Every structure is written in C-alpha cells, then in structure tokens.
Amino acid sequence: MEDPLPEQMRAAGTALLTALDPAARESAVHSFDDEAARRWLEYRPRPRPGVCLAELDVAARKAAHRLLATALSPSAYAQAMAIISLEEVLDRAEGWQRGRHSADYWVAVFGDPAGDDRWAWRLEGHHLSVNMTVVDGQVSPAPIFFGANPAAVRYAGRPVSRPLGVEEDLARALLDALGPAERAAAIIADEAPADIISATRGRVDAPLEPLGVPSQRLGPTGRALLDQVVALYLDRLPPELAIREAARLDAGPLHFAWAGPTHPGRRHYYRVQGDDLLIEYDNTTADGNHAHTVLRRPASDFGADVLASHHQAHPH
After folding, report:
1. pLDDT tens digits for range 92-149
2. How big, in percent rounded to 5, are the helix, strand and coil portions of the chain?
C-alpha cells in the first residue's frame, strides 16, 4: 500500500502557501538549496527563517497548524500545543518583562510542495522545532525538539501541567529496573551537563561516543523499558512513519546513559543512542524544572538519507 503521508504533507504545505498573503509568502518560502536556512535548529526565543505566526491571519495560522499536525501523532500534537501555551505561563512568571507570547512560532517552507520533488518545511519557536523533508515521495523526519519551561506546574503537589512527564517517568522506571552493575554502567556522571549535548548544531558532525549501559547487558524488564523509551520518542511521529523508523532500528544495539542525581526534583540528563539514533533529555536549569528533549538521526537529519538516494538516482 502506498504511503499517504507524503501527499498529505504536500497538500497541507500547498494549502499553507495559498493561505499566505504575498508578503508573508516571501518571508516563509526559501530555496531548498539554502542550506543555512534549511539545516537550522534553534530552541531559544529569537528570530529565525520563516514567517512568524503572529503576523498571519486566522486562516493562515490554522493552515500552519494543519501542516504541523501531518508530522505529529495526536498525542505529540497535544504535547506541542501545551508547550506553545507555556509561553504565556512563563511570561507571567517572569513578570511580563520579556514579551513572550504563544504566537511567537515560525513556519518556513523550502522549495515548492506543489511541484518540486525535493521540498521541506519546519515549524519552530521557543521549545519546539519540527523538521520534515520530502524527497521523491518519501518523508524524512528529524530533528524533532520538544521542551517545556516550566517543566511542571503543580497544585498541592499534584501536576496541573507537565507536557514531558512521560519522557521523565519512563526513563526513571528504566533506571529503577536496573541491577547494581547495570545501574553503575548507566550512570556516567554525578552532575548533569548544562544542556543537551547536540545543542542547536545543524549537524552532529562528530558522532557522540555511545556511553552508558548497552542494551545487550539488560535483563528482560530493562530491555522492555528501554524499548518503551525509544517508542515514546518515535511515536511523536504519525503511526506509519513511526513504524518505519522502528523497523530501521530493529535489532540494532542501543546504549542508555544517565547523568546527575537519580531522585526527582534535581537536575538530570539521559540519552539513548543507536545506529543513526540520538535521543536526548535534560532537565538541568531552573532547579530541575526546565526540560529539553530531542529526537535526532545524526547521519540522516534534515533529509540527508533521502537526499543521498535522490542524488544516486538523479546525478547532477
């Protein structure tokens, strides 16, 4: 059966460009070959390639959201909306001093979704970056960054808002399931790094050394929980794409590493690495209440995999 996702994405991308007025379209559309703009990842609040949703009318903003929804599962789309809404919560917590707002998200399109065999798009802002590349009818996902500040808002100790809670809880369950030797191998440092290691680099040029405990050393419970952590991040994607990505990783070796204290409420970090897979999570600022997570494919980010196949089939 033919994968419907590329055409769904193409239709949504075309509808977005149709909904933009000429000035907004000029800001939003870039050449596919503009590597500096296309191979971009930024999860801090600042201007970026594309057009800001705040500058669009309701119809165009809804078209941008419909495009975003083609790239995310229903649960991940709900996470993304919760992340966006936290801009208002954070602005209040900061005394309304920085002008943060939930429309400060930007959409960019690279190439022409209606006519090109190579095109891409990104929706990005503070704590959200979703990048998709479509080449010869194949969708290549990643990087996909989700963050949350505050990571948790509580009432009487109970969470009112915690968009990335499952990402933390599953990793803690995995850590708790490890035996003493496995746990000693998994914990690589007493203190967490300041941020995710891959940061905002457009390329993870030097592969990160796999650290922590290899999946081959885990017992059945530990391996099952590690598989659940990986599935959680892959399931940010639509089902057909998540299944394809899981098959790409099937049976390959994985490493799980943790840094920082192991009890909740303290600054901590973990990562999962596999063949062309990098998952990172950190909660290392604001006393462990400011989370970053990213799903990357170091050798295939920004469509490098499908572009390589395209160039083999269509040498220039």
Report:
1. 999 999 999 999 999 999 999 999 999 999 999 999 999 999 999 999 999 999 999 9
2. 40, 25, 35
